[in-house]
């Protein structure tokens, strides 16, 4: 099993990838985590699990080349919220691709977003499609996995969730949206890394459930054994108070065009978490903490 570089291993998606790889049963598996701060508690926790740490930054080409050298596969996730906004995110993806090719990485798995190719109206979605196109043109072997809405963005029961559900109801109305758990993203990415021949040149939308806001609210309440509630908010207010990029996102998601069919992931992974199943697991973890 080759050495694998995981970007964002201390974050939600990268952490899920690392967990899935470590749980895969390959005793000779070697993981290298790219981190800006190897001395952080999260990084040290990875080191305690025999994950090698590589100091680096997605906008620092020299550190990327050092981290990628010797790796047979790499997992990339980018972030528009750093330096340079969306343009900076595209730069991250292109620089990583260039250095992966220079380091002779055999397979690159990129975490994009569901609908990246049709989401011109959402800059931080479409930026990921531009990265995809750059990777394709590079000559690298690739897999693009496109997660839909992350279940992990849903706050715990309380006022925060009530306002988020209210914002969803105002902007998305009764349009069903796809959602996926980071755990399942990690499982799919780990599978693509372990089985590059089966996933080469494949683009897969990731979803574990598809529900409208009423169904979402009901699933959360059922899983937690509580009466879920939400705050009524006018659409104009939600859009007015939303940051620019999220305003774009809400408007586009409200069209109901984001792809994501849970059955596609089920066929590959065997099972994926629904919102209710995910929320039940979160409650169990919280109760045992």
Automatic annotation (TrEMBL):
Family: Belongs to the NmrA-type oxidoreductase family.
Annotated NmrA-like domain residues: 3-248
Keyword vocabulary terms for this entry: NADP
Organism in which the protein naturally occurs: Dactylonectria macrodidyma
Stated name of the protein: NmrA-like domain-containing protein
